Amino acid sequence: MTNWQFAICDGLARVHPTSTPRPLASDTILQAFLGEPASFQLAYRPPDNPDRPDNRPLTIRVSGAAADLVTMSCVGLVPAAFVALPGHDDGYEWDTPGLYPDVLRPAPDGSAPVIPGAWLAVWFDVKTADPNRAGEHHLLITATTADGDEVFRQVVTVSITGVTLPPLGIVSSHWMHLDSLADHYQVPVFSEQHWDLIDRFMASAAQLGANSLLTPVWTPPLDTAVGSYRSTVQLVDITTDGDGTYHFDFSKLRRWLALCRRHGITNIEIAHLFTQWGAAFTPAIVISENNATQPTRAFGWEVAATDPRYRHLLAALLPALQQVLSAEWQPENVVFHISDEPTPENMANYLAAKNVVADLLDGWTVADALSDFAFYQTGAVKLPIVATDHVAPFFAARDVQTGDEPPTAQVERIKMWVYYCVAQHRDVANRFIGMPSARNRAIGQQLFANRVAGFLHWGFNFWYTDHARAQVNPFADTTAGGAFQAGDAFIVYPGEDGTPWPAIRHRVFAQAIWDYRALQAVKARHGEAAALKTIGGPIAFDQPNLDPKHYYQLRQRLVAALQAG
User: Fold this and answer.
1) In angstroms, rounded to a whole number, what is the distance separating the alpha carbons of residues 146 and 16?
2) Alpha carbon separation from 472 to 319, 389, 394, 462, 480 (Å, rounded)
3) CB distance 529 to 406 below 8 Å
4) Is the pTM of this model over 0.90?
5) Cα Rg of the chain, angstroms
6) Which domains does the chain have, with CATH numbers?
């Protein structure tokens, strides 16, 4: 019978049940800025006892003057049946079906589960926004068996840098699906229980680094099988008395905007005006007619995008909506969408749909995700949201001055966002479960170095199969029914009692955003060239750095630059 095995690991290590984990390097400094969690892990494996395996939990304790700054979570294993596409690159940690570390289950009592023969981990976050608590903190971590035997004791040092970083200067958009919350927790849409869930998960999105959310003024026509409908999540109540006149109640929208303000969400995206992949049809908009108590669907797959009835509705709705947004939001922080991911084959439909609303959106920002540069060249989309593996021609077309010193006047012919999802599985950063955490974290410095205006991801909490044909239990299915690589469809789990449980990938993406904010701060103090120097110069999207040490060393250079006079 062997003894217990333990290892302190950094926050970019992944503790797999059958592999000896990578321990914290002696020269790695666990560091965070004010308001940012400094993360590390305790990996553990029980003794091998073939006669009587003991799966009773360990008790993990943290003591020291900064113990009150620490929260603990158990790293839970989740199944991944589809991990990587055939022909993927070498930048994967795993590519076969199995159980992998991902979900962070809160462990306020310090109880850590044990699986005989397997490595597991406890995740620690150390955070404070109080500058008086900044400094170097020594935390004593102990582990005690169910029999009361202390089997581990080690001091871990965490440094909180007393620097408050500026708010994120670009858009970070993550689409939160309100129907997924209502469907999973089985609560009525926009009931008080639903609003409470929205509040909690919006807070989690903000912790992820989101400052923009898709706003369902009407139910977003996204990821829905043709002819089918998702649960209605329409923030604007629409009534008509049958004479062609519409009346709008924006009370729910105002409540949504108030929640956004509370959680630091500064940008909103209005749900797409036409269906995905072609812009051929209208969203599923419900309307109450002649004082009916329940609204009925008046638009959807049965109504063409260019139907005059839809134009008639939008001619009344969009000006009223814009009046609310002008009064209660910053119009420059509002984005409208026509249709998601159009292709050249959809050009005629897209332009016809855009023409329906072009005059109604005059003066407002309109953006759409696309990958084909030729589509952009037509002028159909002014603000493209480009897949990270298709940016080359867009970058070649923009006029960006570069040099040792930042230009006094930088002119870009293309102002663009970028995105990644299921198709971006080779050469670029992404956050699939099978990828190493360093590949997830790479996006922060890439966004900064490539001077893009925003980042978008579609899957904050999509707990469905593809095209939303059926619900899934995200603790049992991380692949949307086998449609997408594990982890693409969501980055947060529906915890007990409506509590969001972040994935490890959630924590790491947030670290990438903190990297960006620190680079912003260095740029503001010392110039863009100095900021780029800390990361080694411009970094292409197809060159993510997969070395975990790079990100800890980068942080130390950023801290040094911000503490320099």
Assistant:
1) 24
2) 38, 29, 37, 9, 7
3) yes
4) yes
5) 25
6) 5-164 (2.60.40.10), 177-231+249-275+363-526 (no CATH)
